[in-house]
Write a sequence for this structure.
């Protein structure tokens, strides 16, 4: 039986919310193995002085399997 843990990560991008989510997952994948799911919790943005979005943020809950002692 596998156990699953969930972490919350905030990703950012200069281009889109989709890229912000991808960056959050990419960041988690650097230190975790067996990612199994993602749930976007919120979308936020920074707006520049010109009134345009200049940074997209996505808060993402990422699920990953916890390895047992005999697993790699």
């Amino acid at each position: 039986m596998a156990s699953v843990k969930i972490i919350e990560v905030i990703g950012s991008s200069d281009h889109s919310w989709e890229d912000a989510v991808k960056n959050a997952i990419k960041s988690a994948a650097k230190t975790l193995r067996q990612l199994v799911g993602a749930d976007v919790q919120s979308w936020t943005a920074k707006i520049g002085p010109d009134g345009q979005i200049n940074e997209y943020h996505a808060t993402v809950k990422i699920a990953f399997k916890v390895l047992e002692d005999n697993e790699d």
The first strand starts at residue 3 and ends at 13. DSSP finds one helix and three strands in the chain.
